[in-house]
Design goal:
Number of helices: 9
Shape: globular
Distance between the termini: 38 Å
Order of helices and strands: HHHHHHHHH
Number of strands: 0
Length: 205
């Protein structure tokens, strides 16, 4: 794999990831509702989902999406249900302390899982890798070092996109000092997450 191919892949991935979609929407809503720490673990889950699809394409397993349709539908449903659960928790959280500390509604592991499910439940992510990787890289001659470079590039590029979103949303939360305002913010975040879940559900139908 040439350096030009790696840079082209990284650039295309950066642009695609920066365009707001279900993953970005979920990240922003989670940062508004729970702060940076839990959102970072959610972001790691999103990144792992992308790396999973990349691995599937590199290994020549993209046909799984068509051969085992039921599995992908189940993944989407799981993602929808968990996002709905997070939205419900944020909506019913009530008032948050006036020091604007983030409400730890779930464990880091569950935050990570929610991000993973969002990515795996988004068919556009899979189609991006299926369409992009074969056009830039000769999959027949790719070796382990090339695969490791692709994984590293995917990890770095996606975090470079996601972390600014997390920081900006978390920062916006700190400007709201009144408990009532924070309750409104929590419920707004819940509404966004619920909307994301509904979007994924419609796409899965």
């Amino acid at each position: 794999m040439t350096l030009a191919a790696l840079l082209a892949y990284s650039g295309a991935l950066f642009i695609a990831a920066a365009i707001p979609g279900p993953g970005i929407t979920a990240i922003v809503a989670r940062a508004l509702g729970s702060g940076f720490r839990e959102t970072f673990f959610m972001g790691l889950g999103l990144v792992l989902g992308d790396m999973t699809y990349l691995t599937a394409v590199v290994l020549g397993l993209a046909f799984v999406a068509q051969t085992f349709t039921e599995i992908f539908i189940a993944i989407k449903i799981a993602g929808v249900l968990y996002l709905g659960y997070i939205a419900w928790k944020l909506w019913t959280a009530g008032l948050i302390s006036t020091d604007v500390s983030a409400k730890k509604s779930t464990s880091p592991g569950m935050s990570f899982l929610s991000g993973l499910l969002v990515t795996l439940g988004n068919p556009k992510t899979m189609l991006f890798y299926v369409a992009l990787v074969p056009t830039l890289i000769d999959l027949d001659s790719i070796g382990l070092p090339d695969y490791a470079l692709l994984l590293a590039a995917t990890f770095v590029v996606l975090l470079a996109v996601l972390i600014p979103y997390m920081l900006l949303a978390s920062r916006a939360r700190s400007f709201l000092k009144k408990p009532r305002a924070l309750q409104v913010l929590n419920r707004a975040a819940a509404g966004i997450l619920a909307g994301t879940a509904a979007f994924i559900a419609v796409r899965a139908a």
